[in-house]
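Comment thread on ticket #2218

A.B. wrote:
> Attaching the input chain for the structure job we discussed in standup.
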Amino acid sequence: MYRSSLRFSLAPAISPLWDQLRCISDPNISDQPNSSPKGRQAVNIQQIRDELEIAALLRTYARGVDSRDWALWRSVFTENAVVDYTSAPHGFAGGRDEVADWLAENFGVLPMSQHYITNIDAEIDGDSAKVCAMFYNPMQLPGVKGLSFCGGYYHHDLVRTESGWRSSRMVEENVWFFNNPFAPAEADS
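C.D. wrote:
> Ran it. Output below, let me know if you need it in another format.
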């Protein structure tokens, strides 16, 4: 088991990963843990591959939602996945296909959304992983003046399949929402 923290704000995140990748070409370093010479940390090629594949899966999720490509969105999940958006205003939870239909009906009316997924923390244990990633989502809500913004965390239970990593369970933890038309009106004093 290993824990990784992918931080994809390119410059600072890629530098340490790049340093690890440069070591791959060094014949004195193997891909086995604790086998590096001269006290250098060994590169675990599988760990790097898993981290990159998990980050790509989360990018696919964002692209699927923002392009309203529900087949692409479905491809992120296992067939029997459970997806929970109940922390969002008027959210919904259910099976993958049921939630995809709900998204198509409800999220499809937004003129614009753009999901940023960052700070990917993955605890990988063989063919399963627990992933927590931050999200930031500016969006244009119908009938609302100006942009609305929300942010929080995506919690995924991932499994390695023949097609790569897939989410068997995702829970969105919506932590904050700015310009939220669904928030209760504040009482005048």
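A.B. wrote:
> Thanks. Noting for the ticket: The chain has one domain: 2-178.
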